[in-house]
Amino acid sequence: MTPERKPSVLVISSRVVRGSVGGRASQFALETMGFPVWSLSTVELAWHPGHGASTRMVPGETDFGALLDDLLKAPWISDVGAVLTGYFANRSQVELTSAFIRELKSKNRDICYACDPVLGDDGGLYVQQEIATGVRDLLVPVADIATPNQFELAFLAGKQIAGNLEGSMELARCLASKTVLVTSCETNKCGRMGNLLCTDSAAFYCDHEILDNSPKGSGDLTAAVFLANRLSGLDNVEAIKKTTSSVLEVLGHSVSVGADELVLENAHCFLLDPSINLEVSGL
Q1: Count of structural domains, the chain
Q2: Residue 3 lies inside a defined structural domain of this protein
Q3: Which residue spans within 162-279 are E strands per DSSP?
Q4: Residue 4, SS3?
Q5: What residues make up the domain containing 181?
Q6: pLDDT-based confidence at 5, cuts 50/70/90?
Q7: Helix, strand or coil, per DSSP, at residue 113
């Protein structure tokens, strides 16, 4: 029998020529896990900014809006079952994407929107303030799934950074998103970190030992893998367990070979059937 075709996922995020971050990481994970991907770049970079400055190619506001309009009118738009957004290069992209998602949801209530708010980390915001407030005010409120790190969670909630699970749970429930997955979340155990998943009625935590010198891109990868697992029918407990295990295995492999980027070309088995078996705790 021919396997059932999975819904397409529209990824709106950054793209690098060299490396495995942003839209490249998201697209690889989703396609590996069986989901056709539509991809719209918010910016094209030679490499991740952590490697140094490079040329930035940002589509103009008119062109970016026209592309979104084209997608809404596309004869295949009914194939799209989910949207995943990541990094935005300017405020107008956020506004146009917000209007696009609202229009898409008005046509199909079953569309799943996952917002990975790529805004900053412990060093502060690395996007313009107006981009960050746009994501907070226009995108997170309509997201079915939000995947901030702890710094981004505090910014979105408008409160101080939570340094423990209880504080992060409290902040997560301040957001309008139905499901909040807090990535790279601190735990009370020394030398460990993990992912915290919060809904209105439940919370789960899946932790692991901290890996030193791991490459960038784990947040992008986590958001895409979690979305794929949920779209595949896994419940929240199984989704956070498999997602955390898969990403940890990719990171571990990348560190073991001394790579300065996520090594995704060898990651198929890690995403589909991770061998690491992590524990999930209810909170």
Answers
A1: 1
A2: no
A3: 179-186, 192-198, 203-209
A4: coil
A5: 8-282
A6: confident
A7: strand
> What CATH number is attached to the domain comprising 44?
3.40.1190.20
- What are the backbone angles phi and psi of residue 64, rounded to the nearest 5°? -65, -45
Helix/strand/coil for 270:
helix
Residue 171 domain-assigned (yes or no) = yes
Beta carbons of 218 and 254 less than 8 angstroms apart: no
Neighbour order of strands in the sheet with 192-198: 56-57, 37-45, 8-16, 80-85, 112-115, 145-146, 179-186, 192-198, 203-209, 281-282
Number of Cβ atoms within 10 Å of the Cβ of 234: 16
Amino acid 199 reads: T
Note whether 150 and 182 are within 8 A (CB). Answer: yes
* 1 domain residue, yes or no: no
3-state helix, strand, coil in the chain (%, to 5): 40, 20, 35
List Cα–Cα distances, 10 to 112, 127, 241, in angstroms: 10, 22, 24
Say if CB 146 and CB 175 are below 8 A apart.
yes
206-259 tens-digit pLDDT: 999 998 889 999 999 999 999 999 999 999 999 999 999 999 999 999 999 999
Long-range contacts of 96-103, Cβ-Cβ distance < 8 Å, separation of 24 or more: 96/61, 96/64, 96/65, 96/68, 97/12, 97/68, 97/139, 98/134, 98/138, 98/139, 98/142, 100/68, 100/71, 100/72, 101/139, 101/142, 102/142, 103/72
Per-residue pLDDT tens digits for 16-35: 999 999 999 999 999 999 99
Is residue 29 situated within a structural domain?
yes
